[in-house]
Structures are given as structure tokens and as C-alpha cells.
Amino acid sequence: MCISIPYKIIEVAEKTVKAEAGGEIKTLKLDVIEDQLMVGDFVLVQNDYAVTKISSKQADELIKLFG
């Protein structure tokens, strides 16, 4: 089982996004995600790929869980 950290999108480009979690900013690839992403959206991340868009409520729950 893999644990995915929720990242918040802070910038959107054509094939990548910049996202932040816990003060860390990453450039994420969009090759495997089908959802349209906008600034403020949350995604789960695996190996520098945005893999799943999640709600802010889901992100909050995961952030609380991981502390």
C-alpha cells in the first residue's frame, strides 16, 4: 500500500502544475490524471505525478491524519 500526500495546486501550466504541501513546493507531471486542475485544487501525488484530484474536505482529513 502506498500513502499519497495531498498537495494544493498553486500554479498551472500546460503539462505540469506546481503544488505545495507542508511548505514543500513540487513540480508535478499531469500525464496520468484526467481531471482538469485549477489553482486551489488538491491532488494526491505519487512519484512526482498528480494521480487523483480530491476535495478540500478529503485533503483536510488526510492532513490531520498525517499530522
Automatic annotation (TrEMBL):
InterPro entries: Hydrogenase_HupF/HypC
An annotated Gene Ontology molecular function: iron ion binding
Origin: domain of life: Bacteria
A Pfam short name: HupF_HypC
Gene3D superfamilies, per database record: 2.30.30.140
GO BP terms in the entry: protein maturation
Family to which the UniProt record says this protein belongs: Belongs to the HupF/HypC family.
PANTHER family: HYDROGENASE MATURATION FACTOR HYBG
Name of this protein: HypC/HybG/HupF family hydrogenase formation chaperone
Organism annotation: Candidatus Komeilibacteria bacterium CG_4_10_14_0_8_um_filter_37_78
Organism taxonomic ancestry: Bacteria, Candidatus Komeiliibacteriota
Gene encoding the protein: hypC
